[in-house]
Amino acid sequence: MHSSALMGVQLVVSLLAASIMQRMAPHCSFARWLLCNGSLLRFKHPSEGELCALAGKQMPKQNRRDRRQNGENKPLTVPKDIDLHLEKAPVNVIDALVLRFFLEYQWLVDFAVYATGVFLFTECYYSVVDASKEVNIGAIWCVLTVLFCLKTLHTLMSHYFRSEEGGERSVCLAFGFLCLLVAMLVLVVREDYLEFGLEPGFSSLFDNLEIFVKQQGYADWSIPVTKLTVKLGLAAVCAYIGALLAFPGLRLAQTHLDAVQMNSDRPLIQILLHMGFLSPVIVLVLWVKPIARDFLANAPMGKTSVTLVSSEAFDSMRLWIIVVSCVLRLGLTRYHLQAYLNLAQKWVEQMKKEAGRIAAIDIQRKVTRVFCYLTVVSLQYLIPILLILFSTLSLKALGDFSWSTGAQDTPGVTPAIIMPTAAPVLSGALDEDEEGMEDMEEDIQATVARLSETFTALRSVLTPLFYRGFFAFLTWWVAACQVISSLFGIYFHQYLMQN
């Protein structure tokens, strides 16, 4: 009963969070506040009358009507070097509701906020109550957030694949093949250099799975796949994630350069922007054993070595560093989004330096298109951060790590345990009024027994040792993909675009 009560508290909090998120979304949304709190300024496109006035000519309405009736299709053109200054306006809710992918953006960001709240509750709850044998509901929310982030990125990439031009499709495929090669190289590196823990994690998975299957009566069954097959499948998944993160990395490079230039008179903001941009590199270094763990655990001092940080303290410190870096990048969201919105004015300034004439409708479309893709850019900036953050939170919760030093134990290969069976219900002489209640209790007991069997089976096969290797590698790989794509974006925008 004590076990069921603990599970009940977590389940009630989870259902309450889901209910609040569904009911409060139309009225109170963090995602909507992030775009519509008045800090972001968009640029309005000029009207034809304003462009005609700047060009020094007038175009009567009657003439435009006569041309339409006569079948002529001559768009209004103006010189490119006109003195055009776009009008600014704060982004409001009415403007945001018509943006492309706004509903996907709002739902994902709000879900991430509530998932963080559920995770914090479970962390506080587990620090007070010894619930080591219970299912961590907060970890389930974190894993779901990771899956929803990947699903949203897939939706964005499918939009590129449906594009008629095909250039975006080629970029995604090229990055996918590049990441496939990089992943195959990374997966053959020994644990002495990259300490993900994949090898012991897979060994634990295969051993426990074989024991579990034999307990079910399949004595002659053997695992049909090898570790090489699993690694090839994992490399294919890495290539897919790399293709998903291609355009977010390229977009990050562009907004980073523009944000640094936009805050040229604020050195502190520039330092924070550079720190946020380089934070994925820090994530990569944290899993390079000779640079991170060995340096701190066995720091060379002459002919001897000094232990600066214990192994358990390093694991906790690594979690904190990643979380703090993600929070820093989330705090810089407004600067990156405003840098993107400024592309409209930046394009106008570039147009003024060119000779010739341009159609008024082209100016209006170019300025409007920048604002229409605001939520897409927001997703491209936020999703990689959320992937790293919630992969790290899943690593902490499912890998039995601790936020404090020296509190966690190194997980071993936990053997599969025998599945519990539901306790038989004693039958006796019951009154007719009590039979209905007894049947209901039997159904509840059977349901609880089935859920217990399912979760026990998962816990016996998927051990903390496996979760440590899987989520450590996922966190590291997302950071690696963003480093590859963003550095290529820096090179593209700084050198190739200049030539």
UniProtKB/TrEMBL annotation:
| Primary site of residence | membrane
Stretches of the chain forming a coiled coil according to its record? none
Which keywords fit this entry according to its UniProt record? Answer: Glycoprotein, Membrane, Signal, Transmembrane, Transmembrane helix
Q: NAD as a keyword?
A: no
Q: Which residues cross the membrane?
A: 138-158, 170-189, 228-247, 268-288, 370-393, 470-492
Record's signal peptide: 1-17
Q: Which family does it belong to?
A: Belongs to the TMEM161 family.
Q: What is this protein called?
A: Transmembrane protein 161A
Organism, by scientific name, is: Oreochromis niloticus (Nile tilapia)
